Amino acid sequence: MSDINMKCVFCGESTLLKTIKFTLETLQKCLNVLEYRRSKPVVRKSRTTYDNLELSIESSLNEVYYAQCYQLFTAMKIPRDFQHLQPQ
Ligand SMILES: [Zn+2]
Predict the structure, then answer these.
(1) Ligand 1 centroid to 23 CA: how many Å?
(2) Centre of ligand 1 from the C-alpha of residue 65, in Å
(3) CA of 56 to the centre of ligand 1 (A)
(4) Is 87 part of any domain?
(5) Does residue 47 lie within any of the structural domains?
(6) Taking the C-alpha atoms of 4, 47, 36 and 52 in order, what is their torsion angle to the nearest 10 degrees?
(7) pTM of the prediction?
(8) Mean pLDDT of successive 10-residue segments in the chain (88 residues)?
(9) CA 85 – ligand 1 centroid, Å
(10) 6-7 and 14-15: which strand pairing?
(11) 88 CA to middle of ligand 1, Å?
(12) Which domain holds residue 54?
């Protein structure tokens, strides 16, 4: 059992509840989504903005998130050709 106080990267909420760690795969996906979100001037009004969300391959592998927040964040269709962060 761990009592480390982790924060969900998406909503910034501190939690002792069950969180999920990033894998390279989920992180790649999130980076892609983030990139895509920022490439659009206005992405429909949503109750959560991700202006302060910082993700990087280097640092975010140690971060955690709620499954719920991840789903919310990635629940957006990304065009097939928007794949520039995918490994070649
Ligand atoms: Zn969250």
Answers:
(1) 17
(2) 6
(3) 17
(4) no
(5) yes
(6) -50
(7) 0.75
(8) 72 85 95 88 64 89 93 88 61
(9) 23
(10) antiparallel
(11) 30
(12) 6-74
